[in-house]
Amino acid sequence: MTTTTPTLIRDLFLHPHPTYTPAAAAGAIGMSVEDVEGWMEVGELEGEATRDGVVLSWAELVSFAMGFWEQEAIEEALGTDVAEAIPELLRLCDLEVRIPRMEVVALEKLAAREGKSVDAVLAAELRDLVSAQSEWLGTVIPGFASALAWPY
């Protein structure tokens, strides 16, 4: 479906364009134009109509790409430039937890079924949790609201 390369990641995150045509968006994320147009048709990518045709904003394209590129791969590709590209509250960090074995096995099975890492599956679930609590968290964590809204 997609080709993830450090070069594509670095270019998209470190050399953003305000907007991308579907063809340029396809090139930027390593998909075919037909795939990008298909994602637009089903509403996963929202384009903006202009007099020159439909374009995708950088924020829309980055948000979409982060849905299928593993964040670990993104941060690895960005290297020391990660601080320039991704807000501090959104960068990966380590967390050690103790949870029941059943939940660990369930996370492993879910991750395998989705073709993702356990980290990615758990991060998506935790994002839903913090999104549901965003009003309160925004009052107790400086920069939380803007991090939650990034890249928009």
3D architecture notes:
The protein is mostly helical and 152 residues long. The chain has 2 domains: 6-85, Arc Repressor Mutant, subunit A; 88-149. Helix content is 58%, strand content 7%. The chain has helices at residues 6-14, 22-29, 33-41, 58-65, 71-78, 82-85, 101-114, 118-132, 134-140, 144-149, and strands spanning 19-20, 48-50, 53-57. It has a 3-stranded antiparallel β-sheet. β2 (48-50) and β3 (53-57) form a beta hairpin. α1 (6-14) packs across α5 (71-78), α2 crosses α3 (33-41) and α7 packs across α8 (118-132). The mean pLDDT is 94.
Question: Would you kindly provide a brief summary of this structure?
Answer:
The protein is mostly helical and about 150 residues long. It has two domains: about 5-85, Arc Repressor Mutant, subunit A; about 90-150.
Parts with pLDDT < 50 across at least 5 consecutive residues? none
Content of β-strand? 5-15%
**CATH architecture classification of the largest domain:** Orthogonal Bundle
SSE-based structural type: mainly alpha
What is the CATH class of the largest domain?
Mainly Alpha
**Helix count, DSSP H or I runs of 4 or more residues:** 10
Largest sheet: 3 strands, antiparallel
End-to-end Cα distance: 25 Å
Mean pLDDT: 94
Q: How big is the Rg?
A: 17 Å
Shape: globular
- Give the SSE string: HEHHEEHHHHHHH
* Number of self-contained structural domains: 2
Query: What is the CATH fold-level name of the largest domain?
Result: Arc Repressor Mutant, subunit A
Strand numbers in spatial order across the main sheet: 1-3-2
- Give the helix proportion (percent range): 55-70%
How many beta-strand runs?
A: 3
